[in-house]
Description:
The protein is 59% helix and 10% strand. It has 239 residues and is mainly α. The chain has 2 domains: 2-160, Orthogonal Bundle (Ribonuclease iii, N-terminal Endonuclease Domain, Chain A); 165-237, Double Stranded RNA Binding Domain. Strands 1-2-3 form a 3-stranded antiparallel sheet, covered by helices on one side. The longest helix has 22 residues, at 216-237. The chain is globular, with a radius of gyration of 22 Å. Residues 33-42 have low confidence and may be disordered.
Amino acid sequence: MASYLETFLGYNFKQPGLLIEALTHSSAVTGASKASAAPKVTRRWNERLEFLGDSVLSVSISTRLFARAEQFKEGELSKIRAALVNESFLAGIARKIKLSEVIQLGRGELKAGLENQDSILADALEAVLGAVYLDGGFDAARSAVDRLFQEELEGRLDHLVVRDFKTELQEIVQGLHKELPEYHVTDEIGPPHARSFTVVVKILGIEFGRGSGSTKKNASQVAARAALLKIQKVNEANL
């Protein structure tokens, strides 16, 4: 397991136990202790390393983005970093290095196929980076981040400067009416693993937009975008 991941990371662990801890999900420890009548053996799982790795990843990505030739603005840097370290993106990186094949899970979680769940993969990747940091220091961890994110960090990044329609709408509404837009979930359909939400945004009690998405957050962004387009049309009509 160690040599397999060390190749992807470009780093050899002096304390292999840290890597094992990083790859151990809580279910592999708590589930085993509940199911067994044998004396409890103290084992650690990866939540603490994940906490550490999250910070290491953020600083490493921030450093690389700051050095880019494009000289992105602060707001743009924040959006790009957020896009590179969000759960689904990290899970994609984890799949590239086949992390699911070495994560240690409880029997129930394995049976349910949770080794491929985005949250578990993203958490494990952050924990691995935290383990590299503890074992070899920040330079080693930053080098591992550079290696894992090489394709993303060396390519174009302007497409990751995603507009935040909710923030834009909030600023406009606050400026005009000293009020905040109100978002309401009006519909929720589909099975738990493929949910679809419909959200309506109201301004001063009047519906200005609605949108659907796989999460309430995504649906709210679509609704806000629809509201912004409506406001734009109203402004153009009054010119």
